[in-house]
């Protein structure tokens, strides 16, 4: 049975999209069947793997028009890269910004994404949902259909700010819409060799104990360059520290089970 993992943090720019793409690709490379779901109207996951192409129908049509999920799944297979063999994408575009508003008045509005993913969840080992930087209805939909939530945390001064709000939301969803939701782990990202970074690591570990992944993602400029070539780190810079870290994280996740 496929595991649905929502990658969420309402703080912007903490590494959600980078993690969805590169952890997804790392697992695909290990032979796992992976679906990336772009639930952010910014569409960074979509452009990060296929460029600025506007794929329609997209997640918007799935959520709002109830169209068959198979029609919004796109294979990334391109014949050149074997790493793409195992990866599918449900893309988004700016239409999704409207979905957030349209959903407000719709029937069972928190369960729309669950309904979209339910028919295909068994076709995958892992489904990663890239959430927008807010705790709005799109994130609530992701948390409602997920088995796990993965929380990226940037190794910077205000990293832990807002985390209690996120944990409160997760708890609320656990008590109402999704009893089985579990925190998979906190992922420390953009670690630099500074005492501040180390301080954040220590503080996070002290507070969240074994809920923090052992793997830490370093700050690596290659990770920030790769999306402009619509490539994962394994295609763009396979020897980089970023590639090594995300591969490590994939192994840790598999071992975790
Ligand atoms: N480990 C890293 N080292 C260097 N740059 C990184 C790293 N991780 C992410 N970045 C860069 O930092 C920026 C923010 O990362 P990303 O887009 O993954 O965050 P996000 O949480 O998805 O942001 P948003 O909340 O806007 O969706 C991007 O430009 C990305 O390329
Ligand atoms: Mg993002």
Characteristic terms for this protein:
Rossmann fold; 257 residues; globular; alpha/beta; seven-stranded mixed sheet; binds magnesium ion; binds adenosine-5'-triphosphate
What do you see in this structure?
The chain is of the alpha/beta class and 257 residues long. The chain has a single domain, classed as Rossmann fold, CATH 3.40.50. Helix content is 41%, strand content 14%. It contains eleven helices and seven strands. Strands 3-4-2-5-1-6-7 form a seven-stranded mixed beta sheet, with helices on both faces. α7 links the parallel β6 and β7 (182-189). The two termini are 13 Å apart. Bound molecules: adenosine-5'-triphosphate and magnesium ion. Magnesium ion (MG) binds next to α1.
List the helices and strands and how they pair.
Elements: E1 3-7, H1 16-29, E2 34-38, H2 44-50, H3 59-64, E3 74-75, E4 87-90, H4 95-104, H5 112-117, E5 126-130, H6 137-145, E6 148-154, H7 163-176, E7 182-189, H8 195-208, H9 221-225, H10 233-236, H11 241-256
Parallel strand pairs: 1-5, 1-6, 2-4, 2-5, 6-7
Antiparallel strand pairs: 3-4
Helix pairs in contact: 1-2, 1-11
CATH architecture: 3-Layer(aba) Sandwich
Structural class: alpha/beta
Radius of gyration: 17 Å
Low-confidence stretches: none
Beta-strand residue percentage: 5-15%
Helix-strand sequence: EHEHHEEHHEHEHEHHHH
Q: Which geometry do the CA atoms define? A: globular
N-to-C CA distance: 13 Å
Helix content: 40-55%
User: What's the number of extended β-strand segments?
Assistant: 7
Summed over residues and divided by their number, the pLDDT gives a mean of 95
CATH top level assignment: Alpha Beta
Give the quaternary arrangement of the chains. single chain
Bound molecules: adenosine-5'-triphosphate, magnesium ion
Largest sheet geometry: 7 strands, mixed
